[in-house]
Amino acid sequence: MKELTNIAKENIIGFSTFERKYRDSYDFLNVSVWSLERAMKEAYELGLKEGKKEKKEMTKEEIKQELEQFREEMQERAIERILEEVDNYTIKAMLNSYIPTTKERALFGQLVHIINHINDWL
Predict the structure, then answer these.
(1) Which of 5, 20, 53, 110, by CA, is between 20 and 30 Å from 95?
(2) Residue 4: exposed, middle, or buried by beta-carbon count in 10 A (0-12, 13-18, 19+)?
């Protein structure tokens, strides 16, 4: 971020920081399009340069680890979504007149299946 701040300071008159100061005279600047263009080009070039520095070949083991981590994250997200649906359904079900939707019935059918077979998977 320091590099981006320096690029903005060099190209945009009146720029000092990306932090909000809560004063229009500091937070909103009149900027020429050529200054903005120059700053954007320099920031783009900086991004390209930084991206090339970090680029490296991954081994098969690193790829496997990354895929495993991604799979675990996706499972966690799915579980969180299911638990949110359960919470929503629980709140709705407290109303005596509530009739579950087809989606809710299907979701709870899947949950019952998972719960009934959880020991098989552990």
Answers:
(1) 110
(2) middle
